[in-house]
Design brief:
The structure is a homodimer.
Chain A lengths: L15 H14 L2 H9 L5 E2 H8 L3 H13 L3 E6 L2 E6 L2 H14 L2
Helix pairs in contact in A: 3-4
Chain A binds a DNA duplex through helix 4.
DNA sequence: TTAACATATGAACATTTATTCATATGTTCA
DNA sequence: TGAACATATGAATAAATGTTCATATGTTAA
């Protein structure tokens, strides 16, 4: 179904700084723990401990990785009492993952 | 234009193995040298030396990174005489980069 | 075959990064 | 206030990764 004839598309090379940011963004997706976290919270928001239990990993590990996701604006945070709930920031994130999945699954 | 109402979409968590592959794929995009290489050859195929010159980096560095791209099936290779020409493997690759760019550029 | 050139590769090194442990911070409830 | 719980964080360690240097492999043309 592909093979639409695409006009020779001149891809402008973005500024170096943007390229570094881009690489940094993909770096965040380039860790299986973070990927698993993102899948885990893709349907419903979840508390840190729930995520840790779901993945059978240490709370500390999850917390460290959630920080990375937070710093890169890939997750949303909401506090409710003692717990802190994390969810994916937007559908953008899902789409990036889907694109990658497409490629991995041939 | 977004904000189409999306049905609560049950995102199945893929097998662990797939998740590792997915992380590995993104890992490849998570290096600025490789990103720059991909942009450099996104319009036209280029020889290893040309790429190295374009990026002002060592031939060895580029060759090592091209190997990573090759192993992950992100580039196509064509030999012509002494030179070896690299190009992006498919539009898939471009799309993944574009998705990332969208997020980086807000 | 040899010289000149293009690319690939192994080893070494420096840097980055993920995880763990221990503990700090923050919240609730008695 | 203090105890119990949830989360965050700093330091330490081990593992992974990118670049460089030196050199090997492969190709062409004389």
């Amino acid at each position: 179904m592909e093979n639409k004839i695409t006009p020779a598309q001149h891809t402008e090379m973005p500024d170096l700084e943007v390229l570094f940011d881009l690489a940094d963004l993909f770096k965040v997706f380039g860790d299986s723990t973070r990927i698993r976290i993102m899948f885990t919270i893709s349907d419903n928001e979840m508390s840190v401990l729930s995520i840790a239990e779901a993945l059978n990993m240490e709370q500390s590990t999850i917390s460290h990785q959630l920080r990375v996701l937070r710093q890169n604006k890939l997750v949303r945070v909401r506090r409710e009492g003692k717990q802190i709930y994390y969810s994916l920031d937007d559908d953008h994130v899902k789409k990036i993952i889907e694109m990658g999945l497409d490629h991995v699954l041939e």
